[in-house]
Design goal:
ArsR-like_HTH; 6 helices; Arc Repressor Mutant, subunit A; single chain; 100 residues; alpha+beta
């Protein structure tokens, strides 16, 4: 991890909703229903469910999630028209080590 990446992650985590999203995704089974098509969380949580739980507009959540993905906090997977996101635990651990 370098200073630029750590700074970008810090910016992403400087917002209450984005931190909540990271908390929710830590235990997706507890915080979200499984998508009716996949019925599992191996590829993460459907973006629609994240948006609904956050209670913010689709455009706001989209911006948040895109920025979190760009800095490496989230991994995106597509299944047809649906996008799924999960935490990138490797980057999270690297960030923790870096700021320690």
């Amino acid at each position: 991890m370098d200073l630029k990446t750590a700074t970008e992650i810090g910016k992403c985590l400087s917002n209450k909703t984005r931190v909540q999203i990271m908390e929710w995704l830590k235990e997706p089974e507890t915080n979200f229903p499984p998508h009716e098509t996949l019925k599992h969380f191996n590829d993460g949580v459907c973006v629609t469910y994240i948006q609904e739980k956050a209670g913010l507009s689709q455009s706001t959540i989209s911006t948040y999630l895109t920025n979190m993905e760009k800095c490496g906090l989230l991994i995106s997977t597509r299944h047809g028209k649906w996008s799924y996101l999960k935490r990138n635990e490797n980057v999270i651990q690297d960030y923790i080590k870096y700021i320690s």
